[in-house]
Specification:
four-stranded antiparallel β-sheet, 155 residues
Length: 155
Amino acid sequence: NEEHHDRKRPYMRSENNGKVIEKLNDVSGTSSDRVSEYLDDSNSHDQFILSIQLVFKTENGLEYFKDIFANMAKWVYNNENGTISYSIAVSDKDMLQVLIYERYVNKDAYLDIHKKSMEFLAFKKKMMAMNEEGVKDQLGWEMTGQSYQKPVGFV
C-alpha cells in the first residue's frame, strides 16, 4: 500500500512497514537535515542493485552517452516508483570510464518494470547502435558489471 508522492526527489520504502520513509532533498537540491535509513538484512533483503562500468573509446562517445542517459534518468525519475537510485558517475582517474548505479526496491521492479519499458528499450537500442560498424571507433564502449542484493549500510 504505497502512498503516492510528488517525486521531486527519489524516496526509499521501508521493507518493515511498506510506507515511504524518506524524501532526500527539497526542490533546490539541498537538505538541511540528513535523512537516511540504516540497511541490514531485516529491511533491505529485497533490494536489487546493478553496478555497471562502461569504458568509452572517445570523449564524443562519452558525451553522447551522458546525453541519452540524462534523458533516460529523467524518465525513470518521473515514472518508475520502484527505482530508488538511477545515476552515473565519471571516474576521477579515467575520464572515459563511467559507473552506472541502479537501485530498485526489488528485482521485479528492474525485470518487470524498468527493463520492459518502451523508454528503456529505446535507450538500449541507442546504446547498441554506438557499437555498430562505422561508428564504434568514435562512439563505442565496453561494459562490465554485476548485480547485487541484500545491502548493508545506509542510504
